[in-house]
Amino acid sequence: MKNKWKEAILKFGETPSGRFLIFHGPIYVLLFLLLLFPFLLEIYLSFSDWEPGRGEWWFAHFNYGLGFIRVFKDIRLWLSVGRTFLMAGIAVSLEFLLGLIGALLFSRAFIGKKILITMFLIPMFFMPVVVGYNFWMMFQPTGPINFIFGKLIGREIIYPWLSRAGSAMIAIILTDVWQWTPFMFLILFSGMVSLPQSPIEAAKVLGASEWQIIRYIKLPMLRNIMIIALVIRFIEAIKLFDMPFILTGGGPGFATETLSIYTYIAAIHAGLLGYGSSIAMIILILVLFITSPAARSILRRRER
Amino acid sequence: MSEEKKEEKAVSRRKYLGAVGGLAAAAVVGWGLAGYLASKPPAAVKTITKTETITVTTTPKPTYDYKTTFPVPSGATPKERAINGALMYLETFPEAKGTTLVISVTPGSEGHFDPKYFKEFTDATGLKVKYVTIAWEDIVPKYTAEAVEHSGAYDLILLCPQHYLGTFVEKGLVLDPEAPPANYYQRYQPQWKDEPPSPPAPAFYTGVNCYMGKLYGIVYDYDLWTNHYRADLFEDPKEQKAFYDKYGYELKPPKTWKEFKDIAEFFTRPPEMYGTWVYVPYAWNRRNYKQALASRGVDYFDENMVPQIDTPPALEALELLKWLVDNVCPPEVKTAIWDTAYDYFARGKIAMLLSWASLKKYCEAKGLGTKVKNALCPGFPTKDGRVRHAAMIGESHIMFVNRWSKRPELAFALLTYFADPEVSAKVVCDPAGFLEPFRVGHFDDPLVQASYGGKYYTDVLKENFDWIVPDINLFGAPEYDDVLTKHVNAVLTGGESPKEGMKAVHDAWEAITDRIGREKQIQALRTFGPPEHKGYGPKLAPLMNPYL
Question: What is the pTM of this model?
Answer without folding.
Answer: 0.83
